[in-house]
Structure formats: C-alpha cells, structure tokens
Amino acid sequence: MPDDQESFGPHWDDNYSAFQHWEYQPFITVLSDEKGWVDYAESFYRAAEILLQGLAVGKGFPDVEGVAGMFLFRHYLELVLKRIIVRGRHLVDRQQNAAREDVKEVANIHSLKTLWDLVLRDAKPQIEDRTWDAYDIPFLEKCLSEFDARDRKGFAFRYPRQGGERFEYDFAWISLATEHVQQILSNMLTYLIELHGENEDWQQIQNSFYSRRARLLPPSFRSTISDGPILRLHGSVGCST
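Structure (tokenized):
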C-alpha cells in the first residue's frame, strides 16, 4: 500500500481484520459544476484496455477479470455508437449544421445491430465516401455482429446465467482487436466533431462578412430588415439560410 495510506484511513497491514471498525469517509464528492470533459465511452474503453492487456500477458484470471473486461468493452461499443449517431444528427449535411433543438438523443437501445443501423442512416452520409471506404468497416461490422449475437441485451457479461458462463476468450488476440476497433470508431467520431466545428467556423465568417455589408446599407433600408436573418439578403451568393 502507498506510504500515505494513513491519510486516507486506517493503516492496512498484516494485522487487518474485517472486524476492525473504521470511520467512514464518502467515496464521492458532488461538485457544483459538471465536468464537461468527462467522456463515458472513453472511460469504459480505457478501463477495459487495462484489464484486457493485462490478461493478454497472464495477469489476472480470464474467468474473473476477463468477464469484467469484456463487459467494459461491450458497454464502450454501445456508448460510442450512440455518440457517433448523435454527432451525425448534429449535421444536416456536410456543409450545414443542424439546429441544436432539432438534434434528438438516441433512445434507450442496447442492441449493437440496431445502433449500427442508425450509424449507417444518420452518420455515414455525413462522412466522405473515400474516408468511409478507408475505414476497416468489414472488421468493425464483424466485431459488432459477434458481440450482438453473444450479448444482444447487454446482460451476458453483467449477470449470471445469461450465457456468459459458456464463453472462452483469447485475450492476446482480443487486446489487439479491441484497440483496432477503438481506433476506427474514434476516428469516425473525431471526423464528425471536426466537420461540425468547420461548418460553425465558416458560418461565423459568413455572418461577420454580411453583417459588415449590411452596415453599409442606408439606415432606412437596414431598419426594414433588422428583424430577419442577414444571410437572406445575399442568398444569391450561395450561402445556406
């Protein structure tokens, strides 16, 4: 145990007993502000990575830590697919962002097949064909298909007697394959986030340009259009309205 163990609670040594009485300290501190940078999908992946890579080199037990590692990775898949779907819905097309109020969250879905179908519908059209084709989609789809077949409801690695007791694992392969899958999905998500940011930057440039142009108009004319979007004055320039 670390040298500063006593600062957190009773000293843990060979004399420890479950019959000792400790003073309880809360595990969780509730902050007034949210941590906007917390990424739950990435958290589950990183935790899975630690377990799976350890098991790949003989650290831990496949039927103990292995079950938890597979659950963490399976849950990562569910969460990251939902993020990709939502990021796709933030885009009307590759050149135009959707209004925030028009973006719908993903329903309470656990089927990876259903989620992947939504990725193909809501996110794939926003990604350039050459980029999409460069991803190892066949490998990714086989991974999702296998997890969906073995654990369609997300229960097999969470609860007993849901099928998980029949599973055997090759963690040397799994640790490599899961990282490959994570790289594909992470790249996909980053693409959509960056495309949204580029569209937003371009829209701000357009708004700034037309705002300056509008200020050059006669005051009497400006007053007649002050309540409407500036971009509508210059629709012929090819800007979205």
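The two ends are 62 Å apart (CA to CA). Residues 38-203 form one domain.
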